[in-house]
Predict the 3D structure of the following.
Amino acid sequence: MTARPSGEARPVTPDPTRAGGAAVDALLDPGFLEAAVQRPMADVRRLRRQAEQEEVNLSYTRRLLQGRLDIVRRELQRRAEHDGRSLVDLLPEILAEKGRGPAHGLGRHQTVQPAAPEEYESWVNSLTPGVDLSAVPELSDADLEQAARALAAAEGSLSERRRGVQQVMDGLAAELGRRYRNGEADVAALLADEGR
């Protein structure tokens, strides 16, 4: 890897506040939920599925981002502690620590898969331009610290957007539940719609 000359400007990072892009922006629009619950049953169900897909996409992206952040932080810690082990040696430990951590989800059963994993990986990679995270041990401390800051900031914003999408999902599910309880939903139409 070639070293960047000191003082050379880095490319501008993408706006990390827009994880999920325009599709998530639309769901998080302040008037979205209010307008959605006024729509016909089929539309509310479709919007609920759309919100679920975007939540899954964001969750997948968040896992990618957190994995990179964990590795970068552990490498910085390894260097600070003058740990003689290599980062590769530490990977099982990093993964085990992640597995022992508290669950941050809301216990939701996911029925869909991420729509375009390569796009989310590309977005995460673009958060650290000029810093090749596939070669973490070769990076300078400054590059690692800059990458850690960028990834942490993006993770915070992404998590906030994900919580917003979850609230929209809950609002749409509550509206569907209300309609069923009040007899406004046609179960036969629902089953026919499910079979399509």
Q: What stands out?
A: The chain has a mean pLDDT of 81.
